Amino acid sequence: MTSGFFLYASRYAVLGAGFAGISVAWHLLNDSPKDLRLSVDVYDEIGIGGGASGVSGGLLHPYSPKGKLLWHGAECWRECLELLNVAESSSSSSSSYTSATEKGDTNESFGNFMVRRRGILRPATNAKTLDLMSDNARNCLASCVVETIDNDVAQDLVPNLCLPLNRAFYYPGAMNVNPQRYLQSLFLACQNSAKASLGRQNITLVKKSINDVLELEGEYDAVVICLGSKVDFLPGLTGKLPLRTCRGVITHLQLHESASGSYPEGGPSILSDAWLAVQGPRDLHMGSTWEWQSRNYSSDVSAEEASRALAELLPKASAVYPEIEKWELAGARAGLRAMPPVTSHGSLPLLGCVDQLIGGGSCKFWVFGGLGSRGLLYHGWLGKLMAKAVLSCNEELIPSELTSWKRKTILTISSTLKLKQSLRKLRSHLAEDLVVLLVQPGFRDQGSGCCPNQEPLRCGERW
């Protein structure tokens, strides 16, 4: 305990420097009591945005593929916009961004802007869901409106666009975010916040992997695990979280300078069976593939894998934007998503205290994972809730929809342990019975399931 103004010093570890981890770090610093000395260590062996978060498509909006507002979409949208503003403010310092890029944590081939505010266009491609999408559009957020447009209006936005049903849904307030630039800038905002605290706060990026979270138990007040698909590598959590892995490849396409038909400068990105995240008039990303149960964590993509991805995605994209056939493959990146189970509220991330699963102290270990393909939308609001729960050691601050997985997991583990105990007892009894059988005088193996006196066994008798 320190004297005077400060209370106890608190130390927190955040494992993972993707959307979840950096959001939690920011909110730990900014939502903690003002008179609390606080230190946050962010562990990531690759660096900021080195996992699936750093290569995500970056298309940001709060709606499902059928145009319905996602679970707590208003809160998620609001908090994400707030963090974008924080990151953009911190990136205004060119010297700070230069120091970050010198560390090699950005990928220049995947864009150098942070936020491209040109909206998103979703062509209607399924007649069966057209009426439902139109109804959902009328219940949109005022801060992210959905406009139902016809082919003429769509052509003004994106010339040569193909609308199979002469209908599209336009989100003018949606945007395309460069995940690497954003995460770098948000971490810089964390550093700036710590500096402005005049020594009350500290944040450090530790480039190393943690093989067992129990080794951190005596060093930190709490450990927040934000490792995405790599959470399954931790001994205490291996096979215990209801997550499925899915590798997604994103292709980088460019239009040659000599080719006509560049993308309009103010044109929106496109959402369809394959999405197009526009980076510039002759530069865009196309995604994404879905390789379920993959264990390939590398962001690198071989020439063969890139070709397969292009062959899979190009026909889907050209169905709504035929001009894409002129574009050429310029590269590809991949990430391994951690996909959560589907619930009545949709696919929701997994949050909560996991001391019971790991075996640590009270309110010591927490999990924030399973963001799937919506990490950018969810990370702001859920990171805020997670930080508040950790700071107060109160899991009830997290919505029950995000912690319900724990009850099922703990029940399953308990049932499995009971079954194993029952099997051990059964094997023990069988071994005892076998001994009784073998030591009986005059025993002869009759091979017919009968006792030595040739009389059939009666119910309840032991051999």
UniProtKB/TrEMBL annotation:
Task: Domain (FAD dependent oxidoreductase): give its ranges.
Answer: 12-388
> Does the record carry Membrane as a key word?
yes
Q: State the UniProt keywords alphabetically.
A: Membrane, Transmembrane, Transmembrane helix
List all membrane-crossing ranges: 12-29
Work out whether the entry's keyword set contains Cell membrane: no
Q: Name one GO cellular component term.
A: cytoplasm
Protein name (database record): FAD dependent oxidoreductase domain-containing protein
